[in-house]
Amino acid sequence: MKWTNKEELTMESKLNELLAKRRSIYALGDQVNVQPEEIFDLVKTTVRNSPSAFNSQTVRAVVLFNQSSDKVWDIVEETLQKIVKDPAAFQKTKKKIASFRAGYGTILYLTDTETVHKLEKQFPSYAANFGPWAEQAIGGAQQAVWAALAEQGIGASLQHYNPLIDDAIHEAFNLPASWQLRAEMPFGSIEAPAGKKDYLAESDVFKLIN
Description:
This protein has 210 residues and is an alpha+beta fold. It has one domain: NADH Oxidase (3-Layer(aba) Sandwich). Helices cover 47% and strands 15% of the residues. Strands 1, 2, 3, 4 and 5 form a five-stranded antiparallel beta sheet that branches. Helix 3 (66-83) packs antiparallel against helix 7. It is globular, with a radius of gyration of 20 Å. InterPro entries: Frm2/Hbn1 (IPR033877), Nitroreductase (IPR029479), Nitroreductase-like (IPR000415). It comes from Limosilactobacillus panis DSM 6035.
């Protein structure tokens, strides 16, 4: 169908409203009036509903609360203290890590590399793509969970201290060796709003071809 009325092209999307609400929140608190089990169920449902190539379901998620959540950021701090030699720079790093520790919980996002390797052998013609496809899957799951948390008024951000902390995280939480850590998401109550978000010029990003 060819549209002739420009007003008919105007579409509203509650999803886009929700995606706009999803922001990187760095000032987190633990004042969340939702039980850990409810958040865990939300994460499970959201990840299960996120797409993956060949329905490979390579995304793994570990949801941590209380001392377990704090342990993630203790590991990050201890690891970076060995790397960041300048005391002043480390104090800034320590303050940033403390803001993550102050939240209500942490989600670890991982990729099951065993599944990836099985698919590479099963479908050799596509072997080079299963790694990137797994990254697409985990990115989609992260965005979906992030938006789902935002819908509940819960703030979050996405951090990437892997691979520096991989071994310590696996040991601390007894995770399977095939689960490769890809990101860490601290979440909690929003104690301060996100900053202004800038966008690239539309002409640099989008093309409409009829």
